[in-house]
Amino acid sequence: MKPIIEIEYCPKCGWLLRSAYIAQELLSTFTDELGGVTLIPSAVTGRFQIRLQQLEIFDRKKNGGFADIKVYKILIRDLIAKDKPLGHSEYKGPKNKQ
């Protein structure tokens, strides 16, 4: 059975579209590895968490805000598909020229 990602978001904060975008990106990136992404409206104001089978991967409050989509992809890739290249999502910037 393929793993399912849960994204719990605060509907009062207007984070449904952000959550849907993240879900779309994860499903596009991990087409063969994920069984789905579930969006969960939170009863807790300000909550934004990403979980993999009850394992907390990301918490907005603990991490001091939202991260770029590439951060979520790397965190999830490292748990479900360690050898999967993420292309430009892993690009760190120009190398130092000497």
Structural commentary:
- 16% of the residues are buried.
- 27% of the residues lie in helices and 22% in strands.
- It has two helices and four strands, in the order βαβββα.
- The chain has a four-stranded mixed beta sheet, covered by helices on one side.
- It has a domain at 1-51: Glutaredoxin (3-Layer(aba) Sandwich).
- The longest helix is centred in the N-terminal third of the chain and has 14 residues, at 16-29.
- It has 98 residues and is α+β, with helices and mostly antiparallel strands.
- Counted by DSSP, the helix tally is 2
Uncertain spans, ≥5 residues at pLDDT below 50? none
- Which descriptor suits the 3D outline? globular
Distance between the termini: 49 Å
Provide the CATH architecture of the domain at 1-51. 3-Layer(aba) Sandwich
CATH hierarchy, class of the domain at 1-51: Alpha Beta
Q: Order of strands across the widest beta sheet?
A: 2-1-3-4
- The fourth-level CATH homologous superfamily of the domain at 1-51 is Glutaredoxin
Q: Kindly state the percentage of residues in helix.
A: 25-40%
Q: What's the helix-strand series?
A: EHEEEH
Q: Average pLDDT value?
A: 91
